[in-house]
Design a protein that fits this description.
Elements lengths: L4 E2 L5 E5 L12 E7 L7 E9 L12 E6 L2 E7 L13 E5 L5 E6 L9 E9 L1
Antiparallel strand pairs: 1-2, 2-9, 3-8, 4-7, 4-9, 5-6, 5-8
Length: about 130
């Protein structure tokens, strides 16, 4: 799990999860990025999720993501597999108030617990 890292100029920050995957005993959700306190300035952030190849392409087996601000779900996205692909080239841009708790979570399905997934994030202080 990754935390917030400031860039040298002091006006931007980033976080990345790296490749995350579970096993058959993995819980329904995996926290990938957790930033307990985003700092003393408001931010505008962009989150880019990514996926590896699915283990199964059965209906209802697409992985998903949640984004929480101060433990409130503000993004909940679980894409349907189409021809074995996630069809998930989406990214999210959002305003994050100062001193917020920010968390990016992977939502698993039983068939794809071992599928690789992750997220990259860049934040711009306002």
């Amino acid at each position: 799990m990754s935390s917030q890292i400031l860039l040298s100029g002091g006006d931007k920050w980033y976080s990345y999860s790296g490749e995350i995957f579970g096993d058959v005993s993995a819980p329904a959700t995996i926290s990938m990025i957790l930033i307990p306190n985003t700092g003393l300035r408001d931010s505008y952030i962009a989150i880019e999720p990514f996926f590896g190849d699915p283990v199964t392409t059965a209906a209802g087996s697409g992985l998903g993501f949640q984004v929480k601000l101060d433990d409130v779900i503000i993004i909940n996205s679980q894409k349907i597999l189409i021809d074995g692909n996630h069809n998930n080239n989406e990214s999210w841009k959002l305003f994050v108030p100062r001193q917020s708790k920010l968390e990016v979570i992977s939502m698993n399905t039983t068939g794809n617990n071992t599928q690789i997934r992750g997220a990259n994030l860049i934040g711009y202080y306002l």
